[in-house]
Design a protein that fits this description.
Radius of gyration of chain A: 17 Å
Helix content of chain A: 25-40%
CATH architecture of chain A: 2-Layer Sandwich
Shape of chain A: elongated
Oligomer: homodimer
Strand order of the largest sheet of chain A: 2-1-3
Distance between the termini of chain A: 11 Å
Strand content of chain A: 35-45%
Order of helices and strands of chain A: EHEHE
Chain lengths: 85, 85
């Protein structure tokens, strides 16, 4: 098994209203900043053991679908940052 | 004024225990994944009006210090992704 460092970004799908983003946007406007289109996402960095670099992306997509993202309302991006040698 | 698209990432400082990351890590282990070192951050993308590209980073750092990040416990990264022409 090889230890891979991976990164996942999870965002609400573009067509959905981002309530948290709207709240941040209103707060920034109240502070006097001229901002628009605020979207808020989550980002995860972690290590995962996997058999090979061809297998790790499948494992991370599985992790996203089961825990980190809600496929109904979220989009997500997976990056393999590197592996232990 | 020019409209800039910017991106901010906010993470707990490395020396602080990331309780949310630990929770995610335990949940993933319970699901059978061999993961470690889970850290969770927030990512913001938004448009901001600013006078110049030299000014926009100062504005975004200001936004981070006042609202998006807590300088006592967070570290943050600012990227200017582009501007409207």
């Amino acid at each position: 098994m090889v230890k891979f460092k991976v990164r996942v970004e999870v965002w609400l799908k573009d067509e959905l209203v981002d309530a948290e983003g709207k709240t941040v946007e209103e707060a920034l406007k109240d502070l006097g900043y001229d901002v628009s289109g605020v979207r808020v996402g989550k980002v995860y960095i972690f290590n995962v053991e996997s058999e090979s670099s061809s297998d790790v992306e499948r494992v991370v997509v599985d992790i996203c679908e089961r825990l980190l993202a809600n496929p109904v309302k979220d989009k997500y991006f997976v990056s393999v940052l590197g592996h232990e040698v």
